[in-house]
Amino acid sequence: MSVVAEMMKVNHAVEMVETQGLETLRKYLEKLDAEASSSSATRAAKRLIDDLYMRKALYRVKECDVEHPKLELARKIVSEQLEGSPDSRVIVFTNYRDTAEIVVNALSGIPGVVPIRFVGQGARYKDKGLTQKQQGEILDKFRAGEYNVLVATSVAEEGLDIPSTDLVLFYEPIPSEIRSIQRKGRTGRQHKGRVIVLVTKNTRDEAYYWSSKNKEKKMLNSMHGLEAVLGPTGSKKSSKLSDFESRDVISDIRGKEIEEESEEEKERQKTLIDFETLSGKESAYNTKVPGKESAYNTKVPGMESSEIESETVPLRIVIDHRETKSGVAKTLDRLGMELSFAALEIGDYVVSDRLAVERKRTDDFASSLIDGKRNLFAQLSDLARVYEKPVLIIEGGDLFTSRQLNPNAIYGSLISIAIDFRISILYSRDEEETAAILKILAKREQTENKRDVNPHGKKSASTLAEQQEYLISSISNIGPKAARNLLLHFGSVEAFMKADLAELKK
Buried b / exposed e across 49-68, counting CB within 10 Å, b at 16+? Predict the structure, then answer.
């Protein structure tokens, strides 16, 4: 349940950045950070805020000042409405309080626009809400014209005496047909009104919009069916409840409306996603686009599905024991690989007698370039010396952002690895993709090229001179340069150790 709660929080963050903008996302992540630091924090909130990627997202969103395109569009629509009709009243509906505050701030700088935020009574993080008295005062001023734009959350949908407005602007669509109808009902009472819904293309906004629209059509359809059954003729007053569920009655009543519906509309209705009742329906993110293959389902050239599913001889791979905690080993096991664990001096994975793989996460790769104790090039030098086909897998998508390194330093390192060491560099997004690459390498080596798995080779030992310098420089206050000078003067470690004070001073 805790993991599901964590997933829901991440899903909410994705919705924020898709449909609301970075400022709303920033406010949400700050709330999450505050929740994780409190004494009553949930495990899900703590785990999420401790995650490296979420920390990065929080810091990056603070540095970015890009606006969601909806905000500029909302300014334009409200401004044009009030310029054309200065006595107009406008309601802007938003799903979230933070967005309501952002919209109010955006509209405040426009001449002739006097917006006010209208939210519920409940207290939130850094937001006490509005009391019933404050809500009443705001509505009175809105009615009197002191405010001409009401930026409201769901509290304004029903149960309040809000005057009729000339324009209702949905900042985002909602999947509920009831709430959608209630919002629209705030305009067009005494005179003609307009309803505008802002929808961000290729996001869940589209799914919410078509979900609500389809439900409204079904509701209207059912009402027409009731009219047919309980019409003024009274011919069907004795009908049973099951009569109302008859598809024939309803479809007959719609008649011409169905025939006139555009082909585009029909196609959209076919792929409609009901986000409120997901049971038995495909997720919007799993819906196939006609004529396009998913990037995550792309077949590897030369590999048929039957070849992947069934292999007569199990593929074998030798894994360094330090890699057992990674998800790569677990994924390889799930893929049916025969795994052997050993203390490998060179490489992390051995897939044949000539091919070994060194795996580096992007943060490890960047760290090893600046940390002298983690000599990446020494590891790769040994790999290239011992194995005919050395491979480096760089895992992750933030190679140039995981550390504050000059991109040219990273490019230079990659070029050196490829050209000077002649090591093939492959990239993967995560542990599962790394495992998939390793399986393909093993299949190529063991099945197609008939190579045996043979881990071998040892790390290159230091030369005698390097060992001597290391030994003398380990003495307090003697650095590498002084150690070399002492060895040049005395000729050996033994002579240096036996030297008296006068000789050492000299």
Answer: beeeebeebbeebeeeeeeb
- 349-350 and 338-342 strand pairing: unpaired
Which amino acid is residue 390, in one-letter code? P
Please report, as a single letter, which amino acid is at residue 131: T
* Nearest residue to 119 via CA among 107, 109, 134, 105: 134
Angle (CA) 145 149 152, round 5°? 125
- State pLDDT tens for residues 365-393: 888 887 765 678 888 988 999 999 999 99
Question: What residue type is 447 in one-letter code?
Answer: T
Please report how many Cα atoms fall inside a 13 Å half-sphere around the Cα of residue 479, on the Cβ side: 1
The H or E element spanning position 334 is helix 327-334
Percent share of the chain, pLDDT over 70 = 81
Integer Cα distance of 212 and 91 in angstroms:
20
Q: Residue 291, Cβ neighbours under 10 Å: how many? A: 5
Task: Give the C-alpha distances (Å, rounded to integers) separating 419 from 322, 364, 370.
Answer: 29, 21, 21
* Contact partners, residue 160, CB within 8 Å, separation at least 6: 135, 139
What are 230-283's pLDDT values in tens digits? 766 544 444 444 444 444 433 333 333 333 444 444 444 443 333 333 333 333
Instruction: Calculate ∠ Cα 163-72-20, nearest 5°.
Output: 80
Q: How far is C-alpha 193 from the geometric centre of its chain's CA atoms?
A: 39
Output DSSP code: residue 146: S
CA 365/CA 368 separation, integer angstroms: 5
Residue among 121, 74, 77, 82 nearest 100 (CA):
74
Q: Residue 472 is encoded by which pair of tokens? A: 């003398």
pTM: 0.46
Nearest to 13 by CA among 269, 3, 4, 27: 27
Residue 150 in 3-state DSSP?
A: strand
What CA–CA distance (Å, rounded) separates 39 from 117?
31
Contact 310, 440 (CB under 8 A): no
**Sign of the four-CA dihedral 491, 493, 498, 503:** positive
Q: Nearest 5°: phi and psi at 199? A: -130, 125
| 52 close to 62: Cβ distance less than 8 angstroms | no
Which tokens sit at 233? 């003729």
Beta strand 194-197 pairing with 316-320? unpaired
